[in-house]
Specification:
CATH architecture of the largest domain in chain B: 2-Layer Sandwich
Oligomer: heterodimer
Number of domains of chain B: 3
Structural class of chain A: alpha/beta
Radius of gyration of chain B: 26 Å
Number of domains of chain A: 3
Distance between the termini of chain A: 36 Å
Distance between the termini of chain B: 97 Å
Strand content of chain B: 15-25%
Helix content of chain B: 10-25%
Helix content of chain A: 40-55%
CATH topology of the largest domain in chain A: Rossmann fold
Number of strands of chain A: 12
Order of helices and strands of chain B: EEHEEEHHEEHEEHEEEEHEHH
Strand order of the largest sheet of chain B: 2-1-5-3-4
Strand order of the largest sheet of chain A: 3-4-2-1-5
Number of helices of chain A: 20
Largest sheet of chain A: 5 strands, mixed
CATH superfamily of the largest domain in chain A: NADH-ubiquinone oxidoreductase 51kDa subunit
Largest sheet of chain B: 5 strands, mixed
Chain lengths: 446, 371
């Protein structure tokens, strides 16, 4: 059995209650951190552990904490980004509803390390019941003296506030999240200034993903070196992967970073393989925003090495032959899935979720969706494919926030690896527009 | 006591060195170059959403993206992405490429394309035509053909208040009017609703925008989305003559531009600088109610850039290129008229004939109706 950090006790009955969580060794990390460590030591420990942001970008969390500006007399904030709404990603949801105290414990340690007196958990608006679970857990923790005034007699005060979002994907972008938290329209801000300097209410703020923060109790309890010992290279620790699609056992799995894609996909411990009688066609390794890869490139890199579930191995080969670990939304397609239809579906999502602030994303996402819709429904023409590539290039990198990139990458990569299928849709419009019609031809190897 | 001057920062913009104060944006540095030397005006990045009098505006339209080839003297690495010049502050030793970088120009071309795919292109009937920033931007950087085949988004026209009409279909969502309402009026009652390409400027339940400075949203609008209802469809801007004038106004500075057609003041706007930005915002009384020359003290004609069509009230014959294609077409399709009637030059006869012809036509249409 692989090492479990986050989901070790997740199947203990009643783990969502304070008493059971405490009996499983919960909140010992808070006691250790607040009583025996200084905030700087905790930040140092986080840096040493090498834990990377689990929200998608993979930015080292300790480094992010180190960037936090600390001017005198200005409050600092820790905000937990629980606005998980990427298609194919559902790990934070699972973690919060099953073991809410893990997040709360992590938040207390993080807030103490950063010197925040008020911290926020911004939860996606659709997850109302999770908000109730979190609020109940916070009330329990408060009653037990782990939150509120003078925590554990150390003189440290912390208020933890759960805020519901309005159901916008864009509010998962950290500056849009902060705008939304301030009660404004969730438009991403221009950077710089970065949130570490001017974030929530113009004060220094750190925004972290649920899973990143939930790693903190383990790191404090077992030490950064033990955490850094798990995983491979610069991808340390474990990662929750939300597996979905045409596999036997969809669900959330905690893996040690560095497990091979093949093992994750086929072993009975994890996904259990593609459903019987079918074979792998394509795979999205890190949520809808990352480039889609065809079967031969996801198992082996372009150099013929085994592809591993780690930040470095998945992005091996750049965007030409690689992808990204992203937020860990592992979407598997077998040969019955139509890539054009799927790409159109992703494009439709980004069109719907674009905030409309900057022009390339506002207009470009809609344009891509319309062109893909046309191709999928048998009205495409040959130059549409090149048009799509061109639009995606023009959006990528020219927008305020990464949503533009996230909208452009799936389209560009689908065309890069599955151009034949797009061509088939255009040359066989009648056949292709039938419901359930899928290109059966041989895939051209890149 | 002498004030200590802040250390000036030296940057290179398109190969031209310029010294600016710390905290200046790349856009302002470029404008400084152009102000010092008018022939360099083309170097300045276009701005569709940035508006200097409105702090915190900018960064949205991405029209002003430039390449920073060298971040600063200390850290000479280039910036990985194109940066919006309107909000990016200069650093000592920064090297910026604007018109000298093909990537920047290509991106700008695509921004025009993006802005135009949902823009109605109804310039022939739009009041803004002639002083429209999008028109200028598209003319300078756009391509002739569109690759967009789908339907454009449309909205109904909304009356917001007695003086302003919102034609959302033309809007490019620059947010300038939102910032204006935020920053110069007491209470903002309009904003951006919805998201993505469905977002619209609106007052939510068609509430009127009613305050003394609401008219300024017309001036800041780069396109014809917010128009002056007292001026709508009255005139083309290049047929009117702008004059600077002022009055003693209790609410605002009273410094305006009057737009004349003949002796009639058909429109009053705030004065704008070279970059199309309002110098001083004016009140609604000045804008909508003082439309007589006697209300104002005239200062003289407004300076208008020679390249602007507004100055073209004086179109010169030698500047007008004859449309070759039309003449060629006419030459190929020319047919002598088969008409044996004699050529009449006498005015009275012509009048008589036209009356007769009219009578005949009326008679015909009456017959057609009765049958």
């Amino acid at each position: 059995m692989a090492k479990k950090i986050l989901t070790e006790h997740i199947n203990v009955p009643g783990i969502e209650t304070f008493d059971v969580y405490r009996r499983q060794g919960g909140y010992t990390a808070v006691e250790k951190a607040l009583k025996t460590m200084t905030p700087d030591e905790i930040v140092e420990e986080t840096k040493k552990s090498g834990v990377r942001g689990r929200g998608g970008a993979g930015f080292p969390m300790g480094m992010k904490w180190g960037f936090l500006a600390k001017p005198e007399g200005v409050p600092r904030y820790l905000v937990c980004n629980a606005d998980e709404s990427e298609p194919g990603t559902f790990k934070d949801h699972y973690l919060m509803k099953s073991i809410p105290h893990l997040l709360i414990e992590g938040m207390i340690i993080g807030s103490f390390a950063l010197g925040a007196k008020k911290s926020f958990i911004y939860v996606r608006g659709e997850l109302m019941y999770v908000i109730h679970i979190l609020e109940k857990a916070i009330a329990e923790a408060k009653a037990a003296g782990f939150l509120g005034q003078n925590i554990l007699g150390t003189g440290y005060d912390l208020e933890l506030i759960v805020q519901s979002g309005g159901g916008a994907y864009i509010c998962g972008e950290e500056t849009a999240l902060l705008e939304s938290l301030e009660g404004k329209r969730g438009n991403p801000r221009n950077k710089p200034p970065f949130p570490a300097v001017k974030g929530l209410y113009q004060s220094p703020t750190v925004v972290n993903n649920v899973e990143s923060i939930a790693n903190m109790p383990w790191i404090i309890n077992n030490g950064a070196d033990a955490y850094a010992g798990i995983g491979i290279g610069r991808s340390t620790g474990t990662k929750l992967i939300s597996a979905s699609g045409h596999i036997k056992k969809p669900g959330v799995y905690e893996i040690e970073l560095g497990v091979s894609v093949e093992e994750f996909l086929n072993s009975d411990e994890y996904c259990g393989g593609i459903r019987d009688g079918h074979h792998l066609k394509a795979l999205v390794a890190g949520g809808s925003s990352v480039p889609i890869l065809p079967a031969h490139l996801i198992m082996k890199t372009a150099n013929g090495e085994d592809r591993l579930m780690s930040y470095e191995s998945l992005s091996d080969g750049g965007f030409a032959t690689g992808t990204m670990l992203g937020s860990g939304g592992f979407i598997v397609f077998d040969e019955t899935a139509c890539i054009v239809r799927n790409t159109w579906n992703f494009a439709r999502f980004y069109h719907h979720e674009s905030c409309g602030q900057c022009s390339p994303c506002r207009e470009g996402t809609g344009w891509m969706e319309k062109v893909l819709h046309r191709i999928e429904h048998g009205h495409g023409s040959m130059h549409d494919v090149d048009l799509l590539v061109d639009i995606s290039k023009k959006i990528e990198g020219n927008t305020i926030c990464p949503l533009g990139d996230a909208a452009a990458w799936p389209v560009a990569s689908a065309i890069r690896h599955f151009r034949d299928e797009f061509m088939w849709h255009i040359t066989n419009p009648h056949e292709a527009s039938q419901p359930g019609a899928v290109y059966q031809g041989e895939m051209a190897l890149v | 006591m002498e004030e200590t001057k802040p250390q000036l920062i030296k940057i290179t913009f398109d190969g031209i060195e310029v010294e600016v104060e710390p905290g200046t944006t790349i856009m302002q540095a470029a404008r400084k170059i152009a102000e010092a030397d008018e022939s360099q005006g083309h170097l300045v990045p276009p701005a569709m959403c940035y508006y200097k009098p409105l702090p915190t505006s900018g960064g949205k339209c991405r029209a002003c993206l430039v390449k920073v080839a060298q971040g600063s003297a200390k850290d000479p690495r280039p910036m990985p992405k194109l940066v919006p010049s309107c909000i990016t502050q200069v650093q000592e030793g920064m090297v910026v490429e604007n018109t000298t970088n093909q990537g920047v120009l290509d991106t700008r071309k695509s921004i025009v394309e993006f802005l135009l795919i949902n823009h109605p292109l109804d310039c022939p009937i739009c009041d803004q035509a002639g002083e429209c920033h999008l028109q200028d931007f598209a003319f300078e950087h756009g391509s002739v053909k569109t690759r967009y085949e789908e339907d454009r988004r449309t909205f109904d026209k909304i009356d917001i208040g007695p003086f302003v009409q919102l034609h959302m279909t033309r809007c490019i969502l620059c947010y300038r009017c939102v910032y204006t309402a935020d920053q110069i009026t007491d209470k903002r009652v309009h904003g951006v609703m919805n998201r993505g390409d469905a977002s619209e400027i609106s007052t939510y339940i068609e509430k009127a925008i009613d305050n003394d400075f609401s008219g300024n949203v017309i001036d800041v609008c780069p396109v014809g989305a917010l128009t002056d209802k007292t001026y709508r469809f009255k005139n083309r801007v290049w047929f009117s003559k702008p004059e600077d004038a002022h009055c003693d106004c209790s609410k605002c500075s009273g410094k305006v531009t009057l737009w004349y057609r003949g002796d009639e003041v058909i429109r009053v706007t705030a004065r704008k600088n070279t970059w199309g930005e309002v110098n001083e915002f004016i009140c609604n009384t000045c804008r909508f109610e003082r439309k007589k020359t006697s209300d104002w003290v005239l200062e003289g004609p407004t300076k208008v850039k020679r390249s602007s069509v507004i100055s073209a009230n004086k179109y010169r014959a030698d500047l007008i290129k004859k449309p070759d294609f039309a003449l060629k077409l006419a030459a190929t399709q020319f047919k002598p008229i088969d008409d044996t009637r004699e050529f009449v030059t006498d005015g009275e006869t012509i009048r008589q004939q036209s009356i007769e012809n009219n009578d005949k036509a009326n008679h015909r249409s009456l017959l057609a109706k009765n049958n």
